[in-house]
Amino acid sequence: MQLFFDLAPIIVFFVVYKFAGIFAATGAIIAATGVQIAYQWIRHRKIQKLTLFSGIAVAVLGGITLIVRNPIFIQWKPTIVYGVLGAVFLGNQLLGSKTLIQRAVGHLVELEAGVWRQLNLLWAANFIILSAANLFVVYHFDEATWVNFKVYGSFGFFGLAAVAQTLIVLRAERRAAKESSQ
Asked: Are residues 73 and 53 in contact, defined by beta-carbon separation less than 8 angstroms?
């Protein structure tokens, strides 16, 4: 259920785009993200930082898109959000005592510091590649292709990163089990 809730604004954007075009979809994603943020606040009395950051980006860039009637601003939103996330993951790698990925899922699995750094770099690379890929698609393909990439391509990249993360964790756990049995 949480996954659907997190993905609801992008689903709304995609569906509205297919029926009414980019400007209606932009208005719809602004509204859906606003509802998502309000719901988090009402339900938990806090808003996840990533949801708030993404919501601000949607509101600002989507608002500019609607005001100037130019879709390039909403098309830049994934590049900006993914680029910032990639930079945050990399910066944390260099400056933090615990990686962001360790803070997020460290309560679920115990791994060596080197494995946590590897996972953190995996997600940093994923976000940076997605950021660049979004720009490439924006400037080399039509709008409909970009919308499909935004939905399916992003899910594909996240799916591949999740599979890679799972393989890294399984390999580390196998190595740890082997070492403890000797």
From this structure: no
DSSP code of residue 110 = -
Cα distance between residue 13 and residue 91, in whole Å: 31
Per-position b or e across 23-32, b if 16+ CB within 10 A of its CB = bebbbbbbeb
Judged on CB neighbours under 10 Å (0-12, 13-18, 19+), 9 is buried
Phi, psi of 161 (to 5 degrees): -65, -40
DSSP conformation class of 90 = H
What tens digit of pLDDT does each residue of 124-152 get? 999 999 999 999 999 999 999 999 999 99
Give pTM, 2 decimals.
0.90
